[in-house]
């Protein structure tokens, strides 16, 4: 139930954006389960566990028990909070329940499997063979998990006008606006929306006092319709692929990679800040790209065979196919290229940004929301081509892409914070404003002592809203939109 109220006060309304947690509902079914009961079929139940780190798991929810069934379709849905910026490891276990105890340790294990929530939502539906333990098949049986976002994605869109309103201000005209309320389960009315100043309707006190009173103006609903308001999960589960590209700074200011003082120096355990950033961000994004082929480039180095400076060279030295297989492929290519190049300079971002923008521009010609691009740039210092980079970002803001910049080392990153645009709309040198905010910058040193997943959570937190803002700007629906009655 909904009602609206006319107000005449002068009100200034501010809106603050917050990242909302999405709720995902998982439907579970199994086929051809093992028979563990003598003289009858198993009585299966499925339990969902989530990793809490250090090989520890906590139970999220479990389905009902289905009696005497090898092919159960569980009616109880499993619910879990979804965070794009995290790798959420899940474990599904199917048990044969023969007692009333909630403890599963005395029940027969029919099999299970592990995956990430990102893998499920990016495919919307996955089927896997059951395993008794990692790498050991259960012998028979499969499990199917189907994901849906638990929300109604419809919004009421109304066009309203008002005429002949009462004059309430001593000087000048009144400043009316509408407030919309919805009734909660306890009967109380909750404000859900306040319009900008401009509307009116009946004044109840005047109506009581004057028999001849008709109204204090007229409000007319010119148009009212239901429109879909698509979420990030609507696009991802509807078939949008997120393409991941990496750009790595190989300028001389990083220091000689053979020296322990260099930012490119590989420690005895084979890592450095560059690799840590690649792993942190890449492990999240890779779940949303089906082929797991990621272009990886370097800039600011002299490259063989002629050792000319390049600001856009593929780590595998193959310009026609700069792809690496998975995040591990990027890491392997980085380690391979490091001893073959000479660190030089300057620090130019625009060539790699423009490279990704050209590919994104091709995807933008598609009639639906099929592809989005995320570029990760890892750098140690001050940018040299700031004006060209500003223009490249402004151009990119009109394309399906986001840019993440991770600053390593102790350099001054004021220019990166400027490009981030959090303190105002980024503009090109000619004054053209960015169509939307697509850059997120963080210094790696802020996460030195933080959990390893903290960096990805920080730099990727804005990507879902950036993706939605682009497709909303283009009025593009998901490739496979959700049902209107979802």
Beta-strand level of the residues, as a percent range?
25-35%
The count of β-strands is 23
Task: Give the biggest sheet.
Answer: 7 strands, mixed
Distance between the termini: 20 Å
Are there runs of 5+ residues with pLDDT below 50, and where? 8-19
Shape: flat
Average the pLDDT over all residues and give the rounded result: 87
Our count of helices gives: 10
In terms of structural class, how would the helical and strand content be classed? alpha+beta
Give the fraction of residues assigned to helices. 10-25%
The value of Rg in angstroms is: 28 Å
Which labels suit this protein?
single chain, 486 residues, alpha+beta, seven-stranded mixed sheet, four-stranded antiparallel sheet, flat
Walk me through this protein's architecture.
This protein is 19% helix and 33% strand. With 486 residues, the protein is an alpha+beta fold. Helix 6 packs parallel to helix 7 (386-396). Strands 14, 15, 18, 19, 21, 22 and 23 form a seven-stranded mixed β-sheet that branches. A four-stranded antiparallel β-sheet has the order 5-2-9-8. The chain has a four-stranded antiparallel β-sheet with strand order 4-3-6-7. The protein has ten helices and 23 strands. The relative contact order is 0.12. Mean pLDDT is 87; it is low at 8-19. It has helices spanning 117-123, 204-209, 232-237, 273-285, 326-337, 350-363, 386-396, 414-420, 454-460, 463-473; strands at 2-7, 22-31, 44-53, 56-62, 78-82, 89-96, 108-116, 125-133, 136-149, 154-163, 177-183, 189-194, 218-228, 241-249, 293-299, 301-303, 308-310, 313-314, 323-325, 342-343, 371-379, 401-407, 439-443. The protein is flat and about 95 Å long. The longest helix has 14 residues, at 350-363. Helix 8 (414-420) links the parallel strand 22 (401-407) and strand 23 (439-443).
